[in-house]
Amino acid sequence: MINDRTIRFGLIGAGGIAQAYSAAFKEIPTSKLVAVADCNIDAARKMAGEHGATPFDSHEAMQAADMVDAVIVSTPPLYHPEQSICFLSNGIHVLCEKPLAIDSASAVAMAKAAREGGAIFTMASKFRFVDDVNKAKQMVDEGKLGEIVLYENCFTGEVDMSTRWNSNPEVSGGGVLIDNGTHSLDIMRYFLGSLAEIRVVEGKRIQNLPVEDTVHVFVRSEHGTLGCIDLSWSLHKDVPYFISLYGSEGTIEVGWRGSRLKMKGEKQWTEFGTGYNKMESFRKQLENFCGAIVTNEALVITPEDGIASVCIVEAAYQAMHASNWQQVDYVAEIEA
């Protein structure tokens, strides 16, 4: 049991997203980064050097060294299942970057390996650790907005993806829909509950990528609530609020710099929160994972949540290619 010493972490992948985790480790005294693995050994050495950690050129070499209690998998999605299962099956706890996998069968296999290995397993979804998002969710659960009629989300930005792995469908599983969309659909499910149907309309491929760079997503929850999502790597909608919830009794807007509430019949908005802080969300995500390992703290994002997000993304691509509404089919996590 890890309850009287620092949790020894390994980081698989030393790319862009790994930099945020590297910084987060410096703020959490209960964890220590002791190993970094990357196929680019120079990148592994550079990051490892910042923490006095050991560099490896593969996740297999790190696992064989038997020096970590938990790992963070921050590589492209194609590699998530193999790398996660390598550790989970040996009882090593895993926090895997989103999406868990390109297909639901692989996501289920990861959860099964965690159960059989007795390991903690969770998916990274940073927006679930934003205070303003959780304050808004509390208001919704308390019925402050009445019946939710419409949910809107916007994640757009002008980013050159021509040389990034995210636009290589062989390793990413798709484009902006699986990349930014995994965040969007996970948050929507968090607010609205199970999502029943989805339709996706692709926009122009401005960057001439082999994957979609702009989509508009329509969703209907099992309770009949409508949802709309705008995703793009090729346009920037200069809007201060990335989530809007319209209810029969009021409206909540969750923003980058702060959030607000306006009740039905009121003229003025009531401000709340401080907005989105990337490093704070990464720190809280890592703290939750450590708490689950040490004290059995409940995971904010369960394996079932991660699998559900993969299932919804699968349905989204079916809908985009078929140009019609698709039912979301959820798979069971694992056989009892």
Q: Any low-confidence stretches, pLDDT <50, length ≥5? A: none
CA-based shape: globular
| Total count of strands | 16
CATH topology of the largest domain: Dihydrodipicolinate Reductase, domain 2
- Architecture of the largest domain in CATH? 2-Layer Sandwich
Which radius of gyration do the C-alpha atoms yield?
20 Å
CATH homologous superfamily grouping of the largest domain: Dihydrodipicolinate Reductase, domain 2
Terminal Cα span: 25 Å
Biggest beta-sheet profile? 10 strands, mixed
The residue fraction in helices comes out at: 25-40%
The number of helical segments is 10
- N to C succession of SSEs: EHEHEHEHEHEHEHHEEEEEEEEHHE
Mean pLDDT, to the nearest integer, reads: 96
Q: What top-tier CATH class of the largest domain fits best?
A: Alpha Beta
SSE topology sketch:
Blueprint: E1 7-12, H1 16-25, E2 31-37, H2 41-49, E3 54-56, H3 59-65, E4 70-73, H4 80-88, E5 93-96, H5 104-117, E6 121-123, H6 131-141, E7 148-158, H7 169-172, H8 176-192, E8 195-202, E9 214-221, E10 226-232, E11 234-235, E12 241-247, E13 250-255, E14 259-263, E15 270-272, H9 278-295, H10 303-322, E16 326-327
Parallel strand pairs: 1-2, 1-4, 2-3, 4-5, 5-6, 7-10
Antiparallel strand pairs: 7-11, 7-12, 8-9, 8-16, 9-10, 12-13, 13-14, 14-15
